[in-house]
Amino acid sequence: MKSLQRFQELSLYYKINILIIGLLLLSSCIIGAIMLKSTSRLLDSQMEKRGTEIASYVAALGSNDILLDDRFSLFDLINKTKSNNEDVRYIIISDSAGRILAHTFSGLLPQGLPEVLLPPQSMLNEPVPVHPQQASQSINNYYVTHFSSNEGPIREIMYPIESGIGYVRIGMSEKTTQMLLSHKLDEIILTTLLICFLAASGATYMTSRIIHPLRALSTAARQIQKGNYNVQATVQTRDELGHLSKTFNAMAVSIHEKDRENRRLLEELRTKEGMRASLMNKLFTAQEDERLRISRELHDETGQSMASLLAYMKVLLSKLTDNRQRQLLLDARDVAVSVLEGLRKMAVELRPPVLDYLGIVAAMEKYLTNFGRQNAIDVHFQPPNEKLIVSNEVSLTLYRILQESLTNITKHAQASQVDVELTKTGDHVKMIIKDDGRGIRPNAICNALQNNRLGIYGMQERAELLGGSLAFRSLENKGTTIILILPIGSDAYGKD
């Protein structure tokens, strides 16, 4: 697996070279093996043929010497024949019983060579040629035996002498054949190496010519990946690579045009997004300013007017003597007191003074206390461990998102408990609001936006305008967790 992975990681240049050289080596080895085997068979056949010719020659000339029991002539014949043929290791003449009559060994026979050797029965049934001319034409009437001696492998050819008076045993040494085969093997190896070298040189050259356009395309593709869409592949061939280069260049031009168009649209989108953010910021600022103005008018003007009205009612009550009129005036005073309390509550909700004078933590504590008492919900608030100093925008955003979240919990969540946690982490403030209600459906935000219920969407807009984030985590019937993270801001003040 590792070898395959490494091969896959190689360059196409090396893969093609390895493939070509590998195929050449395989083909050369197969052809060399076939040639070597054919040459070996041919040499074996030629050796047997030569051995039978020599054996028939000796059998024809030595038959009379055997009949006359002229051992000297037999020794002279076989020694001269051996000296005239380099590949003949020995010549033995034996009688019909296999006993040796004459041989060319100066000493003992080589180890592994039998002294008495009889031919097979099939050879004894064959007719023996009488004349040398017939012997040279009947070279198939012989028997071949292979021996492994201390001098190496020996191929012995047993040839019958006429009238069946004996046999000629010619020992052909295979050293010459092996040397010739070794020489042929060296030639095949050298030829294979030369062919592989030439093929490798040619393959390297052709591969470089083929790979060069691909490298140019690869370089151009990397430039496009880096964002340089003006690059063009310079491939001048008319083959498939040339067509691919033209297609690639056309694609690069198209991508360049699309990139310019996308950049233009992105710039327009950024401009519009900036305008939208600016308008949203101005909208929220105007909303807060209007709330502050209305809160002050309700507190300063309308509240003072209602207080004056109550004072006049008190004066009238002191001067009335009719009980019925006094009761009517008392009822009217109670209504005026209720209206005055409602105005004060509305003014506080529009812009709580504690937010401006005591800070966000105190404002949240007071609001949560009133919320829990008015809605019969168990509220737990965990303030930060350290003094929290945030900008005015962040303070207002925290308070408004807390208001909107608790309003949604009252209307939709059917919760019995709410946990609020406010912490400071580095240069960010984090608020977590968790309830045990029925949860928010995954598409609630999209549905709220489509149905013009902008509470949740407005919360996200407020957070994003200050560079923060608002996340919802909710499971059906398992409550909802709202996580708000905001940067503290630069125009922070020290009220807590």
How would you explain this protein's 3D organization?
The radius of gyration is 58 Å and the shape is rod-shaped. The C terminus is likely disordered. By secondary structure, it is α+β, with helices and mostly antiparallel strands. Among the domains are: 188 residues, 2-Layer Sandwich (Beta-Lactamase), CATH 3.30.450.20; 139 residues, Histidine kinase-like ATPase, C-terminal domain (Heat Shock Protein 90), CATH 3.30.565.10. The chain has 13 helices and 10 strands. β4 and β5 form a beta hairpin. It has a 5-stranded antiparallel sheet with strand order 2-1-5-4-3.
List strands and helices in order, with pairings.
Layout: H1 2-9, H2 12-67, H3 71-83, E1 88-95, E2 100-103, H4 121-124, H5 132-137, E3 143-149, E4 152-160, E5 166-173, H6 175-225, H7 240-319, H8 323-350, H9 353-357, H10 360-375, E6 378-382, H11 392-413, E7 417-425, E8 428-435, H12 444-450, H13 455-465, E9 469-474, E10 480-487
Parallel strand pairs: 6-7
Antiparallel strand pairs: 1-2, 1-5, 3-4, 4-5, 7-8, 8-10, 9-10
Helix pairs in contact: 2-3, 2-6, 6-7, 7-8, 10-11, 11-13
